[in-house]
Inverse folding.
């Protein structure tokens, strides 16, 4: 770990010249940026020596750097992989953000007698062999429906052990009678015959349709030769079903196989990445993601990050990657190609077409969303008879447990939507005991005295979670700052959803169906959730700190070191002996592990 700023010291010259990853820490020891470098000394130096070439965002980043941590790796590609995994794990605020955190669907062939094919979003170890992930549930269901039309695989959850089948424990169900299952539960189908269907289904899940097509064609010809025309027709129907399925996903040339396609469409603040996996001329995976830029990163850098992430997610081992921009080949594991003509160029164009469609849909959604949000805040203005449209709304709530650990929260909505970067937590400092009114006066006063001091924008509306008492307490704070009557303020009581204005004896009621009331409820509920969560964390931390300090040999200094390094109580509890030893030494680590083990045993 090196202390910054480097330009005031000779620390720059001590940095290694090897490839690796660097992490920038701020004054709170939070990691705010992770980067990779072919030469760590040159890359890190560029942040401090070439300031005139930096854009506004990079200059802001450099001002926040207080410490720098570096990790050396063997190659530039290793640095890329490490950087990618650290960004995903740490999510630093200045790194690009992949805006897709959904869990993806898989198909699993289970490890059990007469295996089933099931859909799932969780990969459980030893449960079976997983295929996917699929870009959508619809894509997964199309494959699953095809397999169930082609093969007679069971869908029941029965334990079909030899003992259970031989003892006649089960009876065939409706699936058997309508021809979707051959009845292995009663011994009507052998395990070896069932396994042949499973092996065929596996080839389809791998994206290899040629093997099942060949099999059905052989069976059809053999049945026809034996004059079993009804059986031959069944195989012909299945062959046509497979060919129709393949024709829908066939792109250009069936000889094109094991190829990744990754293209980028770049805007000022966002980029859209489309990713294909091609096997036997068919698209087996298609996915488009949106990436938020943080420091005006180059298209090459963004595409590399997205590609590494996609290949890992979809477990692709393709050597060839087609792209729409020039990329330096940084690894022997895959090779970038920028095709100019032919079928490979058609694949890149198709990928770009998908990316453009996704971008258009996103922009349309955003425009529709903005119109709706503006309509709601204008409705709120009308319902509350406000002078200005409340584009900025702040809502306060406080929380305590029997008077202990009093805390408060403030949430900020911009244009009717949460702006979480503006959320604030507060420890109540001047109030003794469970006095919610005094606590409200304190936190509202602290919030707006700071905004005035720093000359920041004031909200268009203040919402207090509570009735008259809480509202009057907040009004006192505004009066002391000469802000009363300059900012509209209301209280919302939860029981009857009553809206209180300062000085009015009776509350007003907004229609329960009104979008503006739903907005106020969202504000109130979000402030309450934020306050409760913070209060629980404070109590948990205090309890845990007390537990640690009760361990002989562990003092306040050790506890602070642990919290500073691990950032949370949960991570300390989950830490291994090796991780604890790095922070507090082997002896104290032994004491901590021993105390945790004893507590679990009790």
């Amino acid at each position: 770990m090196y202390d910054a700023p480097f330009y005031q010291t000779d620390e720059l010259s001590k940095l290694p010249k090897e490839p690796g990853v660097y992490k920038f820490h701020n004054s709170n020891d939070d990691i705010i940026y992770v980067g990779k470098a072919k030469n760590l000394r040159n890359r890190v130096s560029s942040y401090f020596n070439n300031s005139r070439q930096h854009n506004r965002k990079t200059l802001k980043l450099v001002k926040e750097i207080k410490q720098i941590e570096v990790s050396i790796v063997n190659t530039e590609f290793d640095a890329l992989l490490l950087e990618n995994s650290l960004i995903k794990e740490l999510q630093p605020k200045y790194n690009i953000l992949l805006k897709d955190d959904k869990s993806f669907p898989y198909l699993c062939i289970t490890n059990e007698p007469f295996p089933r094919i099931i859909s799932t979003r969780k990969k459980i170890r030893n449960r079976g062999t997983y295929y996917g992930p699929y870009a959508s549930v619809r894509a997964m269901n199309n494959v699953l429906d095809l397999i169930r039309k082609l093969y007679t695989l069971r869908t029941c959850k029965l334990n079909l052990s030899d003992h259970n089948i031989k003892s006649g424990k089960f009876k065939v169900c409706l699936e058997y009678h309508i021809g979707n299952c051959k009845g292995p539960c009663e011994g009507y189908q052998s395990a070896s015959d069932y396994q042949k269907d499973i092996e065929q289904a596996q080839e389809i899940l791998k994206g290899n349709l040629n093997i099942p097509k060949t099999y059905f064609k052989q069976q059809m010809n053999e049945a026809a030769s034996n004059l079993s025309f009804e059986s031959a027709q069944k195989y012909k129907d299945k062959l046509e079903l497979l060919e129709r399925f393949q024709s829908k996903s066939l792109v250009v040339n069936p000889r094109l196989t094991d190829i990744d396609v990754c293209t980028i469409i770049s805007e000022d603040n966002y980029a859209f990445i489309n990713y294909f996996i091609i096997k036997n001329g068919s698209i087996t995976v298609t996915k488009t993601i949106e990436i938020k830029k943080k420091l005006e990163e180059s298209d090459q850098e963004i595409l590399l990050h997205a590609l590494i992430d996609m290949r890992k997610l979809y477990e692709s081992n393709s050597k060839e990657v087609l792209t729409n921009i020039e990329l330096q080949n940084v690894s022997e594991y895959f090779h970038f190609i920028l095709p100019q003509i032919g079928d490979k160029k058609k694949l890149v164009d198709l990928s770009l077409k998908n990316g453009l469609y996704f971008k258009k849909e996103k922009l349309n959604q955003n425009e529709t969303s903005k119109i709706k949000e503006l309509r709601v805040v204008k409705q709120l203005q009308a319902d509350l008879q406000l002078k200005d449209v409340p584009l900025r709304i702040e809502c306060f709530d406080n929380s305590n447990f029997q008077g202990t650990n009093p805390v408060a929260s403030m949430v900020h909505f911009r244009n009717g939507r949460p702006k979480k970067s503006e959320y604030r937590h507060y420890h109540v400092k001047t109030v003794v005991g469970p006095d919610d009114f005094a606590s409200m006066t304190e936190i509202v006063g602290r919030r707006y005295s700071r905004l005035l001091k720093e000359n920041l924008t004031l909200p268009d509306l203040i919402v207090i979670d509570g009735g008259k008492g809480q509202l009057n307490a907040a009004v006192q704070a505004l009066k002391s700052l000469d802000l009363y009557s300059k900012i509209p303020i209301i209280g919302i009581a939860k029981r009857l959803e009553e809206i209180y204005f300062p000085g009015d004896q009776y509350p007003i009621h907004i229609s329960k169906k009104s979008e503006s009331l739903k907005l106020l409820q969202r504000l109130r509920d979000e402030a309450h959730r934020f306050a409760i969560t913070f209060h629980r964390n404070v109590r948990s931390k205090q309890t845990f700190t007390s537990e640690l300090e009760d361990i002989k040999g562990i003092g306040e200094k050790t506890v602070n070191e642990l919290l500073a390094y691990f950032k949370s109580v949960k991570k300390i509890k989950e830490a291994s002996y090796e991780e604890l030893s790095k922070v507090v030494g082997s002896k104290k680590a032994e004491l901590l592990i021993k105390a945790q083990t004893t507590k679990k045993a009790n």
